[in-house]
Amino acid sequence: MIKKNVNLRQYNTFGINVFADSFFELNQLEEINYLKEILKNYDKKIILGGGSNLLFCNNFNGLVIKNNLSGIEIINRNEGKVIVSAAAGESWDNLVTFCVENNFYGIENLTAIPGTVGAAPVQNIGAYGVELKDVFYSLEGFSFSKNSFLTFNISTTEFGYRTSVFKKLKNDFLITKVNLQLSRNKKFNLEYKSLKDALSQYNIYEIDLKLINKIIREIRNSKLPDYTSLGNAGSFFKNPEIDEITFNKLFRDYPDISFFKVENKYKISAGWLIEKCGFKGKKDGNVGCYEKQALVIVNYGNATGNEILNFSNKIKNAVYEKFNINLEPEVNIIQ
Ligand SMILES: Cc1cc2nc3c(=O)[nH]c(=O)nc-3n(C[C@H](O)[C@H](O)[C@H](O)COP(=O)(O)OP(=O)(O)OC[C@H]3O[C@@H](n4cnc5c(N)ncnc54)[C@H](O)[C@@H]3O)c2cc1C
């Protein structure tokens, strides 16, 4: 059941050509017992979903655990709400389609985010004004250090902007199942500007889940590169948050700055900062910033993970020099 010397190129959306010393595919929950035993032979492990939020810098000298657990079911339904339970290895976008087809409201704005259900809580995925935390009910998983299955509900998840307790637990906690609470009553979140603009041509009675799903897919396809032909992991950096004093100073110098206010902080568009440093569409050997969105670093063919990391450091340094703002990667860097 353990494969040796496996090329990971097809298992990461950056398309980095690295090898895993050992590779295990988890297809059934019961196989965790076997997994526990074989892990005694490894110092290093990584849990892998769709590989759309990580950057392999080197060959991986340990065990890659590829999560293939599958299945979606409705576990509780009442008049207004429904709880949908999905195994962690399911494609996130398949889950969205399932909910759209069943008229379950809540995750349609998260259409077409690559990757698996199990990774969605790790960075609290978000798009078009919705985050996973908005619909999260509970999740189950296996703790290797505690040697037991654990359940987390919303009060123990520590969800924040692109973060959660699971990001901290790292590869010690394998998420096996995620339960979402969705609405059965018509309820949309249409505040996000580009979504609002795209829907403005429709009559309110024409707007339904299928239309939102279709429109978001179209917007995303027009803005983001297709990773099957141009390797990438979506946004490379998080949008930095700064305080009011720093913001006011910046705003004086750059009145066109792209930002939004979150409570008493200001979230600055990382894409705008990077673009202002001249990186949009810039190519550096095998690596570059996507021509339509500076926040997306792309692999033009045969880039190594370290080439991408070095390029990301150039961006980080340039933004720091120009704006005195520190960019943090959203992508998980695997050294
Ligand atoms: C074109 C593109 C667009 C994107 N757009 C968005 C977007 O709009 N919003 C957004 O939030 N993200 C976006 N992303 C990033 C990415 O799709 C999400 O972060 C996604 O949830 C990653 O899923 P994955 O299965 O590929 O995770 P992986 O990349 O395989 O893993 C990511 C992290 O989660 C851990 N992990 C994976 N599965 C499990 C598990 N079962 N248990 C415990 N830990 C686990 C891994 O160890 C790793 O640390 C985009 C990526 C791409 C390529």
Task: Provide a brief overview of the structure.
The protein is of the alpha+beta class. It is 24% helix and 29% strand.
Write up what this structure looks like.
There is one protein chain. The protein is an alpha+beta fold and 335 residues long. The protein has three domains: 2-67, 2-Layer Sandwich (Uridine Diphospho-n-acetylenolpyruvylglucosamine Reductase, domain 2), CATH 3.30.43.10; 72-223, Uridine Diphospho-n-acetylenolpyruvylglucosamine Reductase, domain 3 (2-Layer Sandwich), CATH 3.30.465; 231-334, UDP-N-acetylenolpyruvoylglucosamine reductase, C-terminal domain (Uridine Diphospho-n-acetylenolpyruvylglucosamine Reductase, domain 1), CATH 3.90.78. The chain has helices at 32-39, 92-101, 165-169, 193-199, 209-223, 244-253, 270-276, 305-323; strands at 2-7, 19-26, 45-48, 54-56, 60-67, 72-77, 81-87, 126-127, 130-131, 136-143, 148-153, 173-183, 231-235, 241-242, 259-262, 265-268, 283-284, 287-289, 296-299, 332-334. A five-stranded antiparallel sheet has the order 6-7-12-10-11, covered by helices on one side. Strands 1-2-5-3 form a four-stranded mixed sheet, covered by helices on one side. Strands 13-19-18-17 form a four-stranded antiparallel sheet, with helices on one face. A hairpin with a 2-residue loop joins strand 17 and strand 18 (287-289). Helix 4 (193-199) packs across helix 5 (209-223). The chain is globular. The two termini are 26 Å apart. The structure holds flavin-adenine dinucleotide. Residues 13, 46-54, 67, 88, 113-116, 118-120, 122-123, 125-127, 166, 171, 173-175, 224, 227, 232-234, 332 line the site of flavin-adenine dinucleotide. Flavin-adenine dinucleotide is lined by residues 13, 46-54, 67, 88, 113-116, 118-120, 122-123, 125-127, 166, 171, 173-175, 224, 227, 232-234, 332.
